[in-house]
Each structure stands twice: as C-alpha cells, then as structure tokens.
C-alpha cells in the first residue's frame, strides 16, 4: 500500500509493520487476498530490512499460509496437525509460535489477511518465546459500516448526512471523487479491525443516489474494485420506490408481479457488474421515505421481494426497523415513539426470508447518550437481526467532543434481555454459529486529514471493528491497543506517559459527556436540526416524539404499564417488571421510564434535582481536567496536538453551556436551589 501524504495513517503507521518487516516472511497460497498479504509483507520487509521468502526452502521467521499449502512446511504442518484435522473456519485463523517460527494458518485468504493484522497488533510480542496455537474467528459473518454519504450535496445535510469529518471519500458534487487511493487506504484500515462490508450511500436515498442502482452502477463498481483486495464487500442503499423512479412502473407494490420482476432483473444486472456485491440497505416508511404501507403491505412483504431478487446471488437485504410516526401530537401522552419499532415488527417474526436481515437500532429512540436496549432485539427469535450502532457522534458531541463509545457498546452487547446468565444482545446479533445479522454502524469517516475530524474519534471507528469481530473484548484494552498503534512505538513515540494520559482522558469520556448533557436517560435536549449544543425544550413541542415532559412538579416520561404508554410491557421478564417500578428501575434510565418529582430519591441517596446539578458541575470539571492533561501531553505531532487542544477548548466551552442551560432550566422549573450553594445563572 503506497504511503499517502494527505491523510493521517491512523492505526496503521509504517512503524506498525516494523516487527513483521524485520523478519524473513513466507506467504503460501493463492487468491486475491493472499496477494494482498504478500504485498503488505513485502513492503514491510523492503522498509525494515527483512526478506520476503519465495518458497519453503528457506528458514522463515514468520509463515502465513493457507491450510491447503501448510503441509509443504514443517512448522505449519505441525501446527495444523495439532488441531486434529478440524476446520479453522470461514475468515478465521490459527496463530502459534514454536521452534522460533511464528505461524499463521487460515482456510481462506480472508482469514490469512486478518491473521496478518493480528500479528501487526502484537508487534514484537508475536516473535517472543513459545505460543500455543490460538484459534481466532469472527463472532459474526457480517461486520458492516453504513455511510450516510450523498452523491449530490444536499441543501440541508450537505455531502454527508450527520457527517462531522468533512466531505465524502466516495462522492463529490454530484459524482465520484475520481482518485480513489484514499478509499483503498480506508479499506486497509477497516480490514485491520475486522470490518468486511460497507454501504457507500445514504439510507435517505435522494434522486441522484437512486441511480447508483442502474445507470450509475459503474461508480459503485469502481469503489468495489478498491476495497475488494481487503476483503470488503460493497452494499448499496436503495429506495423502495426504485421500480417507479427508475423503472417507470406505476407502482412499487412489493406483491405486484411487475415490481418483483423489475427487482429480479435489476439485481441480476448489478451482480453482472459487481459479482461479489453484498446486497441492499432499505429505509422504508420512515421519516418520509416511501415504503410498503402505501399499498397496505407489511415490512416483511417489502423486504422479501428484495430478498428474493438477491437470493440467487447470495446477497442480503438489510431492512431497517427505524419506523415511527414523526408527526405526533406532543399533548397526546399515549403515543410513544419508543414503542414504534416493536409495534410494527414484533408481529412479523418468522415472516422474513433467511437472507432478509432486520437492522435494529440498539435503543428504541435514536442513538441517544443513554437509552435502554431496544425490546425488538428480544422479540423476534425467528428473524435474523443486525444490531445498529452509531460511530458518527450525532448525539454524543459530533466529533468535536472526546467521547469514547466502546463502553456504551459493551453495555449494550453484554445486556441480557432475559436476565443474567441468559443470551445477550451480542448472542442475538451473532447467532448460533456466526450466522446472525451481525453488527452494523454508521461510519464517522470523511475527507478530513484525520479521517474522523477529531483525531481521538478514530478510536470509535477502531473499537467498532474490533467489537464487531469479538464483542467480548474489553473496551479499555481496545483503547490501549489503539493508542499503542496510533501513538506508541509504531508511530515512533513513547507509549507509557501518553498511554496513561489518553487512557485517563478517553476511557470514561462517554460518562463524562452524559454528566454534562441530558440526565438519567431522558434524552435529546439538543438544538433541533443540527443536534449540537443544549436546548432543553428544543424538541419538546415538536411532532418528533422526543419529549421530557418537565413541569413544575417533576420530569420524565411515564412508559409504565400501570399509568403510562405501556412500553415496559414490550420487554421480557425480568426487565418488564424491573423497569415498571421507580424503586427497581436503574437510576441511569429513571427518566426514560418514569415521570418523577424533583425530590425523588435515587439509589445513591441524592434527589433527582441534586443529581442534575451535581453531574453537570462534575462533567465540566472532568472536561477541564482532560484539557489540562492534554496541554502537557507529547504525542510527537505538533499539528495533531494543536487540533486536539482546539477541540478540547470547544468541548469545555460547550460543556459549560450545557451545564448552565440545564441547571438554570431545572432550577427555574423546580424552584429548588443547589444544596451546595453553587451559582446557577
């Protein structure tokens, strides 16, 4: 991979390959991705003085071999024999070290590529001592990033919807960017984390984007050519109304035979152009997007029509469950946006095709800083579900604030909808043997030099890929892994002091962000439209269904079965009862499920109003502490240091604004002063 001077190397600086490049390396096997492994190893050896062996007659220090080629080399043969003939598995690899040789074995080239990047992460550790054979396999077959990129610049959302890192790396001003070297570099970064699929356009499919399916398919094929050498399949967001917009049909009714034939014929043409095409992503009957409701059909009817068209080619359709009424009456407290996905989709369980994947946001609302796990995840055991996360920080600081999201994702993935010791969200997403819907996230990448706008926001992209590969990984360990690759020895720096600084700044940053923004799971309180900065009543009287119902007596949304919207009843036991009572509901979700007085006492002994004051003051102090730490940090890159310092200045300013607005609002609503006597404006 050639070095790009106009983009930050992120977690793959040249030095990351020093340990590999200083060795004698042998790559055995055929295939496009094996060729990528050979090319990566060869470039590393050319840089650091090692040698890329041409055959098995030498004495390699590192062997990367397909299992079919392993018998030709004693070290690889011994490792393989120790597995008793069992298959390594799709995309998996074995890593071992014996008799001075580090061995990576895989049944397919993708596994060999992932094995190489594992050795890169280990660095010199991969070549020290003896290492018994370790088997590594991805937990889920699909590990996917959705880009909300527009081909045309949208008059409101711009080139990238909810993009906080500049323009698109694929599109510019109505067409492809042309030079796709950056796309190849992006694919390489993703492969190093384990991501194997991307969607290249916005789920809100506008007029130009619709044509990517037909007469502009060549633009998609060009992207697919760049990412294919790194094991990544391209998917495409399509509009449900494509048969009308592109095919000239008078209807998009999914049960109309003309519509079904159009999708089948069009999909056949897609695969003729892109043989390894992944499939479609559809947002339907949501926020103005067309869908099957217009024809009296169900979402299963809509998804199955596309699934049938994709099935002969091994493709899948990701059908998003983000469906709700966005024209609600705020005075009607019986209507609850949180209920919508479950109400629409749970009755359809078992009616979706095997290659139709229902893509469910991890929470019932919309990527808030804190919300419960979506009950849909537990409600559809006969449907393949993908859990959708948001790497782009729409409601968590928009990549102007440090907010490491992996701890949030770990809580979601480790949550047991049926209680402790039962199956988890990760188990549902990955399936019995990796055949679940997988994990999907909205990408945070743009054409900014640092990829993600805020250099430290790279950690979220890295962590998503690593957790999608193995949801059991500890976020703190993943964070240190990213720090060491990006700023440590691989980048020519000293990992010790900087690792401690960054770990202190980032590991608890999601909870810090929560402290100075919306409290106790109530959500939103952001400025409408762009969603950056505080506006406590910004969405309170709008039709979007995003309310906190604060009045002079209390705050929160009653979602109980007893007196509220009944949302708690969508959960299985024990959570249905846990959430039903303020006495058992976790404090961090109290205002999501209950409308309580300001004097309600939390489990830690503080009142709701005092909690609001305390956390907002504390959150600002924590940001100020991070800013002081960074001023003394030495990342070895003055420009990066300056960018992070500038962004921390903005984070502190914004955190103070959140503190002052939220505290002032609730002081005026409640009339209760801060028990600690601090100034509230």
UniProtKB/TrEMBL annotation:
Q: Which GO terms describe its molecular function?
A: alpha-glucuronidase activity; xylan alpha-1,2-glucuronosidase activity
Please give the biological process terms from Gene Ontology that the record holds.
xylan catabolic process
Q: Which InterPro entries match?
A: A-glucoronidase_C_sf, GH, Glyco_hydro_67_aGlcAse, Glyco_hydro_67_C, Glyco_hydro_67_cat, Hex-like_dom2
* Keyword Zinc among record annotations: no
What the record says about family reads:
Belongs to the glycosyl hydrolase 67 family.
Active site annotation, chain numbering? 287 (proton donor), 366 (proton acceptor), 394 (proton acceptor)
Has UniProt tagged this entry with the keyword Hydrolase? yes
Q: Where is the Glycosyl hydrolase family 67 C-terminal domain?
A: 452-678
Q: Which residues form the Glycosyl hydrolase family 67 catalytic domain?
A: 135-451
> What PANTHER family does the entry give?
ALPHA-GLUCURONIDASE A
Q: What is this protein called?
A: Alpha-glucuronidase
User: Can you supply one Gene Ontology CC term for this chain's record?
Assistant: extracellular region
Tell me which species this is from: Nonomuraea deserti
Q: Which Pfam families match?
A: Glyco_hydro_67C, Glyco_hydro_67M
Protein keywords:
Carbohydrate metabolism, Glycosidase, Hydrolase, Polysaccharide degradation, Xylan degradation
């Amino acid at each position: 991979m050639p070095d790009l001077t106009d983009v930050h190397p992120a977690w793959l600086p040249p030095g990351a390959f020093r340990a590999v490049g200083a060795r004698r390396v042998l790559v055995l096997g055929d295939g496009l991705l094996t060729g990528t492994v050979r090319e990566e190893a060869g470039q590393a050896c050319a840089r650091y003085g090692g040698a890329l062996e041409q055959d098995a007659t030498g004495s390699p220090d590192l062997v990367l071999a397909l299992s079919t080629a392993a018998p030709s080399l004693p070290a690889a043969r011994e490792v393989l024999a120790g597995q008793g003939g069992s298959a390594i598995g799709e995309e998996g690899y074995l890593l071992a070290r014996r008799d001075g040789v580090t061995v990576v074995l895989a049944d397919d080239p993708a596994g060999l590529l992932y094995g190489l990047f594992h050795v890169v992460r280990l660095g010199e550790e991969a070549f020290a001592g003896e290492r018994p054979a370790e088997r590594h396999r991805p937990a889920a077959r699909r590990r996917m990033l959705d880009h909300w990129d527009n081909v045309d610049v949208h008059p409101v959302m711009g080139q990238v919807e909810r993009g906080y890192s500049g323009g698109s790396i694929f599109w510019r001003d109505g067409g492809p960017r042309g030079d796709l070297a950056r796309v190849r570099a992006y694919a390489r970064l993703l492969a190093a984390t384990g991501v194997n699929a991307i969607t290249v356009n916005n789920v809100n499919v506008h007029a130009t984007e619709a044509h990517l399916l037909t007469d502009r398919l060549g633009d998609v094929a060009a992207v697919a050519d760049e990412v294919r050498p790194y094991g990544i399949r391209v998917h495409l967001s399509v509009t449900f109304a494509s048969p009308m917009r592109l095919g000239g049909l008078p209807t998009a009714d999914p049960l109309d035979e003309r519509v079904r034939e159009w999708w089948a014929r069009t999909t056949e043409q897609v695969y003729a152009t892109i043989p390894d095409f992944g499939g479609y992503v559809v947002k339907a009957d949501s926020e103005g997007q067309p869908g099957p409701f217009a024809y009296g059909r169900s979402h299963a009817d809509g998804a199955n029509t596309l699934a049938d068209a994709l099935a002969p080619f091994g493709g899948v359709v990701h059908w998003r469950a983000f469906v709700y009424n966005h024209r609600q009456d705020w005075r009607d407290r019986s209507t609850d946006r949180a209920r919508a996905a479950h109400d629409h989709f749970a009755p359809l369980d078992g009616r979706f095709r095997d290659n139709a994947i229902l893509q469910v946001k991890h929470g019932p609302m919309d990527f808030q800083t804190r919300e419960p796990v979506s009950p849909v995840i537990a409600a559809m055991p006969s449907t393949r579900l993908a859990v959708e996360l948001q790497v782009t920080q729409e409601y968590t600081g928009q990549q102007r604030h440090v907010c490491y999201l992996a701890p949030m994702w770990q809580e979601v993935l480790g949550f047991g909808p049926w209680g402790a010791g039962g199956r988890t969200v990760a188990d549902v997403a990955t399936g019995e043997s990796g055949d679940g819907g997988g994990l999907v996230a909205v990408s945070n990448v743009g054409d900014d030099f640092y990829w993600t706008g805020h250099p430290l926001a790279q950690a979220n992209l890295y962590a998503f890929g690593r957790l999608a590969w193995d949801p059991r990984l500890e976020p703190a360990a993943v964070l240190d892994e990213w720090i060491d690759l990006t700023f440590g020895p691989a980048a020519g720096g000293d990992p010790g002091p900087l690792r401690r600084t960054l770990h202190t700044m980032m590991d608890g940053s999601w909870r810090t962000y929560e402290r100075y923004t919306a409290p106790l799971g109530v959500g939103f309180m952001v400025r409408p439209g762009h969603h950056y900065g505080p506006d406590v009543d910004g969405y309170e009287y709008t039709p979007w269904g995003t309310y906190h119902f604060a009045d002079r007596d209390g705050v929160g949304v009653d979602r109980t079965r007893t007196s509220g919207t009944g949302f708690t009843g969508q959960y299985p036991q024990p959570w249905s009862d846990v959430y039903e009572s303020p006495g058992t509901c976790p404090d961090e979700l109290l205002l999501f499920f209950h409308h309580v007085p300001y004097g309600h006492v939390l489990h830690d002994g503080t009142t709701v109003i005092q909690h609001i004051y305390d956390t907002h003051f504390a959150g600002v102090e924590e940001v100020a502490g991070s800013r002081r730490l960074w001023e003394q940090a030495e990342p070895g890159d003055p420009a990066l240091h300056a960018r992070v310092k500038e962004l921390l200045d903005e984070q502190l300013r914004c955190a103070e604004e959140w503190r002052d607005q939220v505290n002032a609002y609730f002081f005026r609503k409640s009339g209760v002063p801060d028990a600690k006597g601090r100034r509230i404006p």
